[in-house]
Amino acid sequence: MKKFISAVLILLVISGSSNLYAQPGEGRGQGMERIHAAKMAYIADRLHLSQRQSGDFIPLYNDYEREIRDTRQSFFRKYKGVHPDDADDATSRQFIDDNLDYQQDVIAIKRRYNDRFLKIISPQQLADLYTAEREFKQMLIKRLKQQRGGGGRFNNRGNGY
Question: What is the value of pTM for the model shown?
Fold first, then answer.
């Protein structure tokens, strides 16, 4: 029953925030905050975090997410406006090399935070964390696709740009 209530709560938050681009009074940041809150609720429930664990884990996880996001934004900012189909060979090669560097940086961040996470949560909870992140992302994308009629930015190209 607890999982059902959590799932309903998450879907309500997501459904409200998925309109963030269409609502003139609500900025993108507010919608993203609601999605983040839903993600944190989903992860806390999925990992069965105690109150103490949750209080220690969530601020650390926020730092982890910020580092991952900053790394991703830095990579994509470099290639803003460049589409792979229109790029010359040198640009494509540089993109490939930079993408590998980006992935390596993300792995380094994950390795660094794993030790810190393990001071708060169990190894099983840590393994479940990465599954919970994927599940939440899939739920969010599915919900956004449904609300946008299958089009828009999430268009099954799978390449992220």
Answer: 0.70
* pLDDT tens-place string over residues 30-87: 888 999 999 999 999 999 999 999 999 999 999 999 999 999 999 989 888 877 778 8
Tokens for 2?
């607890």
Name the residue with tokens 């560097």: 101
Q: What are the angstrom distances between the C-alpha of 142 and each of 20, 46, 63, 75?
A: 16, 19, 26, 26
If we measure between CA atoms, which residue out of 65, 75, 80, 116 comes closest to residue 96? 75
The DSSP call for residue 159 is: S
Phi, psi of 118, rounded to the nearest 5 degrees: -70, -10
- b/e per residue 17-39 (b: at least 16 CB within 10 A): bbebeeeeeeeeeebeebbeebb
